[in-house]
Amino acid sequence: MAMPKATQAFPRQEFLRRLAAVKAEMERREISALVVIVPANLTYLTGYTSKSGYVPQALIVTLKDEEPTFITRKMDAAAAIHQMFVDRTRVLGYPEDLIANPAKDGYDAIIDHLLDVGCGQSTVGVEAQMLSGQTLEKFKTRAPAAKIKDFGNAISWIRGIKSDLEIGVMREAAAIADAGMRRAIEVVRPSVTEADASAEIIATLIRGANGKAGTDITGFYLCASPRTSTCHIPWTEDRFQAGSQVNIELAGVRYGYTSALMRTISIGKPSDVVRRLHDGEVAGLEAALAVAKPGATCGEVASAFNTALGKHGFTKESRCGYAIGIDWTEPTSSFKVGDPTVLKPNMTFHLMLGNWVDEDLGYAISETLRITENGVETFSALPRELFQV
After folding, report:
1. How many CA atoms lie within 13 A of 181 on its CB side?
2. Which of 2, 84, 224, 386 might form a disulfide with 278, Cβ 3.0–4.6 angstroms?
């Protein structure tokens, strides 16, 4: 009996709906074939989450074919057959002699396929930001009659508005993030090593919540005293000490969909300045949530946060958040002063309010949210507290 594919979170019709939206944009830009390279876009269009993007690979979408064709290294083709909704005949593996070959690589196989299926004289879209100048020139040289056109971040913008099915998976991921943070609150104690605590937290993120396992681990950061002014460093071999502060950023992941969460833990009574910073951050968070609704702009959300935080005597230099969905960030809009992006229902964001004030002071709190028809929904059920253990 055939095993079910790993894309069961979404039915075939969901992927065809996504492809239809991309094809509509291709038609608008008069593109006959599209070379999709961004890993998150591959996930969005096919369900593929395998870590094979370290070598050339691409999804070829054409206006004439219902299903796309995926071209990858032969040893990675089996993963695509297991995960992608497409027929296995549309997964093509190129030979190993294109690996570590100074003269030819996997992009030659991709170009060969475009020529073989009659796209040599068509307008071909590429995600140029993923290609080196040398590779982009190879496309132009080997297909001289084709018009090579940058497709930019068009798929990322399409991904920006989630379907109800996608929102459901992000809620599942958020429940996993909550479970991981609750485990952090349980295991962060004096004399426990950062490594041991991290192992417990990460194990929870994999085991999942509510019968739904975590399907990946991404972006886990545990920044404990004296490194609370940092944001993106991993755990160390040190042991937690009484009086320490621990800032944690983690995420639950389901089929590539990510719901992020940040909280701060104090081992013992927090300092007055950290308590004041917490109060200011929560006030700013609530002000931002009050503004986040359809018709508002990302910049207005950021301004609301900054104004409320300023009343508590603090400022935040970094942006206040960003679009999130497949993987940690979507390269479109940010909660940043001046960002003109207009919020629409089922856009999703990480309202990331980590604040690294100076070399001795930092704090972390965040919410992953979606824009609803009338306002905002936050996915986490965890209190917005400065947790004292």
Report:
1. 32
2. 386
What is the sign of the dihedral through the CA atoms of 336, 337, 342 and 343? positive
Residue entry with tokens 């475009």: 114
The residue with tokens 């909550």 is 178
* 78-100 pLDDT per residue, tens: 999 999 999 999 999 999 999 99
Residue holding tokens 């919540």?
209
Condensed to tens digits (0 to 9), the pLDDT of residues 355-370 reads 999 998 999 999 999 9
Q: Answer whether 365's CB lies under 8 Å from 384's CB.
A: yes
Distance of CA 33 to the CA centre of its chain: 26
pTM of the model: 0.95
What are the structural domains, with CATH classification, of the chain?
12-159 (3.40.350.10), 164-388 (3.90.230.10)
- With 0-12 / 13-18 / 19 or more C-beta atoms within 10 angstroms meaning exposed / middle / buried, residue 320 is buried
Helices (H), ranges, the chain = 12-28, 39-46, 74-83, 106-116, 133-142, 154-159, 164-187, 194-207, 272-291, 298-310
Round to whole Å and give the CA distance between 45 and 328: 17
Q: Which residues contact 270 (CB under 8 A, 6 or more apart)?
A: 245, 278, 386, 388
Residue range 180-223, pLDDT digits in tens: 999 999 999 999 999 999 999 999 999 999 999 999 999 999 99
Percent with pLDDT over 70 in the chain: 98
pLDDT at 5 over 90: no
Burial of 234 (0-12, 13-18, 19+ CB in 10 A): exposed
Dist. CA 180–CA 127, nearest whole Å: 35
Averaged pLDDT, 359-384: 97
Q: Is residue 145 a contact partner of residue 120, using CB atoms and an 8 Å limit?
A: yes
